[in-house]
Amino acid sequence: APAAARAPLPPQARIPPDPDEVVPTLQEVNLSGNHSIPELHLDIHVYAAKPAERFVFINNRKYREGSTLQEGPTVEHITRDGVILSYQNLRFSIPRQ
Question: Which residue of 8, 61, 73, 95 could cross-link 87, Cys pair, CB 3.0 to 4.6 Å?
Answer without folding.
Answer: 73
